Write the structure tokens for this entry.
Amino acid sequence: MGYKLINLQMPTMYREVYLKSRIRKMLGINEFSWSIENKALDARKKNHIHWQMRVLVNSPELTGSEPEPKPELHIPYKTRKEKAVVVGSGPAGFFAAFVLQKAGFQTTLIERGSEVDRRTKGIETFEKTGRFSPLSNYAFGEGGAGTFSDGKLTSRSKRISLEKRFILQTYVDAGAPEEIKYLTHPHLGSDRLREIVKVLRHQFQELGGTVLFETLAQELKVKQGRVQEMITDKGDIEADVFVFAIGHSAFETYRMLMKNGVSFHTKNFALGSRMEHPQTLINKAQWGVPELQGVKAAEYRLTSQTDKNHPVYTFCMCPGGTIVPATAYENQNIVNGMSLYQRDGKFANAACVAGLNLNELLGREISAMETLDWLEQLESGFYQKAGGYAVPFCGIQDFIQKRIPTKQPESSYPMGLLPAPLWEWLPQSVSNAMRNGLKDFSRKIKGFEKGNIMGLESKTSAAIQVDRDEKGLCTGFENLYMTGEGSGYTGGIISSAADGVKTAMGIVKSR
């Protein structure tokens, strides 16, 4: 059997029979099979938008040798008596627990929120009635914040190829489409993620792992740098290893860790609002047509350096998506974006945020605890000014020109819109930078200024960072680890999951 890698340009709406005929014609063979290695949309020329594909063909009519197999993550198993506790069931927490259980640890995964079906019902009730559930919301619950998102699986992190292949294969084994292994910009969609996280949970339990939902880590018993026991609202848990993967929103857990000697520092982060456009406007701007067969919806990623003090960029673009009330706590008002696998909603949304250094913004050295307090006040302030969970909004052009809108637009946001001087609700340096960035974006995408901008986007990443070593071990501790987005070192599903895998592998190899 011989093998050959070939590159093909394919129309966006191609069928498998056409791909097969192209391979046959290019290589002059009749008996063969193939696998797609990479698939990326090339939309640089609107009159020639196509898929750029790399395909591995194998056939008895070819002579080339098979490419070297890509190395796989090896998780060494041995019978152990050691117990591990992982706090948080998001990507970092789940994959840390999954690897530890595969390696033979007796692993307990605790999650402060509800299992995903109950969580979904809680979110639906919140959006219909305004009754907020601390156990079932967009931040807390099975799968973490990423469960109710676009499910993007791209990552800019380097040196995680082993971990990334393991993560993607695990998702495929849990029901994700094979395409996530070769698409340049793969995503799962919130509808599929809700099913995938349940399958992952069952796989973990079949390995012998324990999952405790609606269980909040309240305190630690620490002696000479070693955690001996975790106190939860459902009872105490003893273990040999404790891993915290709490995400960016669990402020009381951050404070509990600080009280017990875990060291954090303030880091650069970003603030802003979420923008919304009709998806057809974005499609026309990017493709030249309102829809393109074979492609779900057009995306964009924009950056601007027009403000020399603050970089401005778009974040978490959700084609065909929905803007959602993403608060982790009652009486706070923040937004995020999500979309389903088909990305077939009427609107496109993305955050417009400005990077900032809180020390510079406030003119003094800010502790990690003060950073949490400052963010809480900002998020609560949006709730108080809005008088609830209605989202303050204005048009992008209104924001640029500092004028309150007079018309109520159609929107995907489920809890109502409130016309407001949004630029006044944000820190002045942030809104000034965003204004410059929005002008720049409007030059780059035709019609961009016709969109709307709304709410507070304050959770692009954690605003503080733990002091830890490269394996995730917290400074000054023997057995307390912190990983994922809550550690302040990662952001997004893949990089956070990879951090969880790396942390778990470091634990496995050291014991």
The longest strand covers residues 312-325. The mean pLDDT is 97. Residues 5 and 56 are 5 Å apart (CA to CA).
